[in-house]
Structures are given as C-alpha cells and as structure tokens.
Design brief:
The chain is mainly β. The protein has a domain of 49 residues. It is built from three helices and 29 strands. Strands 5, 6, 7, 8 and 9 form a five-stranded antiparallel β-sheet that branches. Strands 22, 23, 24, 25 and 26 form a five-stranded antiparallel β-sheet that branches. Strands 1-2-3-4 form a four-stranded antiparallel β-sheet, with no helix packed on it. Helix 1 packs parallel to helix 3. The radius of gyration is 24 Å and the shape is globular. The two termini are 45 Å apart. The N terminus is likely disordered.
C-alpha cells in the first residue's frame, strides 16, 4: 500500500507539472481514503496516458521558452552526473542528467531576483563542479552597475544555491566580462575575466585593449573576491582560454595586442610561487586589425603536460583556424596545422585532451548552413584522423564545446532550431 501510494502521488505530481491537472490539492483530498485497488486502477490509466507523452525529465518546455542566444553550458561532476546551465532573459537555470544527456531533471532557477541576463556565444555562462561536489556557477548580467559577473554555488547537490554575488570590486565603474572558471583538485576556485579598468596599466597602444584579472578563493572562504591583475594588452572581445597544468597551476591562452596593433596570442602561466609569468607569444600571424575579431582561442593540456592550442587568424602569414603544440610552455612549438575547409569559413574551434586522446571540433559554413567538423588524435597530437559529425543547423547556434567525464569525450552544441544536442564522440 505504501509503495502504491508513493507511486500514485508521483504520477499525480507529474500530471500537475504537465498542466494536465491544475489542482493537486483537490486530487490529494479526493483520493486520500481510497483503497489500494482504486489506486492501482488510477495508476494503470495514468501510465497508459503517459506512454504517449514524454516524461517530465525530457519535456522541452521545462527549460525557459527561449534559451538566450543558444548559450547552454554543461559539465560533469566527479560522480559522473552531467550538470547543465541554461540562461534565459531574466534568470539562470540549472538541471542535471544521470544518463549522459538523454533525460534531465526539472530545472532550478539560481537567481531568485530577476536580473537582465547578458550572454552571447563568445561569453557564455560557466559551470564547474569541485571534487567535493560543490556546483559553481558564473554568469554575466546588467543591473544598476555596468555589465559585470555574478558567482553562486550549491553545496547540497543543486537543491539550493547561494545568493549570487558580484565578482568585481570595481563593478560600479568598470565593465567585467569574458569570464572563465577553473577548480583545482584542492577545491580552490579560480575566476578569470576581461576588465576595463585597463587605464590603470597604461594601455594606449590601440583601441579594444583592456586588462586580464583573476581571483582565487578556497571553498571555505566566504569573503568577497579579491581582484588581482594578471596582464595588460588583452584583446577586449576575444575570450581567453584557461586550463590547469598537471601540477594544478593555471595556464592562460589569450589574444593580445602587440606592437603596431598586431593581434596574436600568448601563453601566460602561474609558477609554483603563485606568480604570473611574463606572457610568451606563441602565434606569429601578424594580424593587424583595428576591430574586434570576437574569436577567442582554445587550450588543452594532456597527461604528459603537453599544451595543445587552437586559434583563429586573418593575419599576413596565414588565415583560418590552426593547431599547434608545445612541451615547454611555448619556448618551442610545432608548426601550425591548418584545420578545416578554407572555402567554408572554418571558425570557433574547441579542443580537449583526455590522457593522450586529443579531440578538436570547429564550425564551418557553406553559405546556407553551419556544420560541425572534427579531428582526433590518440597519440598526443602526433597523428590525426578526420571524424565525421552529422551535426548541422540552418539557424543561429552557439560555439561547439567539448567536455569529459574522465572516461569519454562529449560534444555539446545548441542551435535555435535543433535545441541542445549532447553526444559522445
């Protein structure tokens, strides 16, 4: 009787959530004293109806009616659970999947108070899960202060989230965007962002130049974020890439503005003493442009501490998207390897390394539709194989994103017409 009762109320709740019934209190009252056979009859009738419907975990309208700019973010927890972050016009929502993206839980809204959420493909919200299981969320919003970022977390497996707090200590006077987040094995949280307080660092070389800032906080630290300077001369509109080295120290791959307005890339790493080293230039394409490319690079570090780099350029020396690698933080580098069909505008590559397996994905456009392409290496980038991805869209879409559960590599991609797609590669 107890099992039947629990099952019945779960089904009634399902019907209520799907707006098939509208007064749960009425149904509870009406069936409260019914005998077990009556419960069984109701359950059978309900199941026969639900067989023709989707379950609540896969109901499309559980997510906001319009995903803001198709910028869905995902990441795996150490437990293997997949967490998904979805921005809407006034709120950020989180849900999870226990079956690698086939079905999802009912979403929970993180910000209880309405905010004007502001995201775009180059600047999506971020979600990272600590080894302890803490769910960390970083997103971008406009309020009374200038555009800036908010941080929230959950220590109860996503049942509730902390009140979102500002990351920037200059939010009233300086814009703060292009956020990135890393969580090391000791549950320390690193936040990185582009910051317009660049006038403090004498950035006068070109337009569209600002500074890179960061903050580090332990899981037990409840104080405000301490903002610290990393580097000046950062290209304002190209999202920087970040990763942790094998010794759990952050590495940054950023488009910088060099002499004469050249927008090439550099590696910036933190040493064992927590000091940021001088940026080391690792691309020499000589792209001189007084505009915003809005085309950030990607970075991955494999189990041998080899750094894998992908980037976009329209420089004097080369045009398109490219891959190269380094074993000594950019002191020596492999030759750039072109990616994709140059006639189909290859763009926005992402890269991920799992042990010695390295996967690259990128977008191409044939004039009518966007498709995703892929290359894969199983020997740390020594040799490569083309991989076919049957993923296309005629609508607006996000940049492709690779994630791992430490066993397999997955691709996340969202478009207006196809919605969120999540596949194992």
């Amino acid at each position: 009787m107890q099992i039947v009762d629990m099952t019945f109320h779960k089904l009634v709740r399902t019907l209520y959530n799907k707006k098939i019934i509208f007064r749960l209190s009425h149904y509870k009252k009406h069936f409260m004293l019914r005998p077990a056979p009556f419960y069984l009859l109701i359950i059978l009738l309900t199941l026969s109806f639900l067989n023709s419907c989707q379950t609540t975990s896969t109901e499309p309208n559980l997510l906001p009616s319009k995903i803001l700019h198709s910028t869905v973010s995902v990441n795996f927890a150490p437990s293997g659970r997949l967490w998904r972050l979805t921005p809407a016009k006034l709120g950020i929502y989180v849900d999870y999947s226990n079956d690698e993206g086939k079905t999802y839980s009912i979403p929970i809204r993180i910000n209880k108070q309405d905010q004007k959420i502001s995201v775009w493909p180059e600047n999506p919200a971020s979600i990272e899960i600590s080894q302890s299981g803490r769910i960390n969320v970083l997103y971008y919003a406009d309020e009374e202060q200038k555009s800036t970022s908010f941080f929230s977390y959950s220590d109860d497996n996503g049942h509730s989230f902390s009140i979102p707090i500002l990351v920037s200590d200059q939010a009233q006077t300086a814009m703060h965007y292009m956020d990135k987040m890393l969580i090391d094995h000791d549950n320390n949280t690193y936040l990185f962002w582009h910051d317009t307080r660049h006038e403090l660092h004498d950035n006068k070389q070109a337009d569209g130049v600002l500074s890179l800032y960061y903050s580090k906080k332990s899981a037990s630290d409840s104080s405000n974020f301490i903002n610290q300077f990393v580097s000046k001369n950062i290209c304002s509109c190209c999202r920087s890439a970040t990763a942790l080295s094998n010794n759990q120290l952050p590495v940054i791959f950023a488009r910088m503005v060099f002499k004469d307005g050249i927008r090439d890339h550099a590696l910036i790493r933190m040493n064992a003493d927590g000091v940021w080293q001088k940026p080391r230039r690792v691309t020499h394409d000589n792209w001189n442009i007084e505009a915003c490319p809005e085309h950030g690079p990607a970075l991955a570090i494999d189990s041998n501490n080899r750094i894998h780099l992908t980037w976009f350029t329209l420089g004097v020396k080369r045009q398109g998207i490219f891959y190269r690698q380094t074993d000594d933080f950019g002191e020596t580098l492999s030759d750039p390897m072109p990616l994709g069909n140059a006639n189909r505008l290859p763009s926005h590559p992402d890269i991920l390394a799992l042990n010695q397996r390295v996967v690259i994905v990128w977008k191409e456009f044939d004039g009518k539709q966007t498709s995703l392409q892929s290359k894969e290496s199983n020997d740390g980038g020594k040799s490569w194989t083309e991989k076919y991805l049957n993923l296309k869209s005629n609508s607006k879409n996000s940049h492709p994103k690779l994630v791992t559960n430490n066993t397999d590599i997955f691709l996340s991609w969202t478009s207006e017409s196809e919605g969120h797609q999540f596949i194992k590669l």
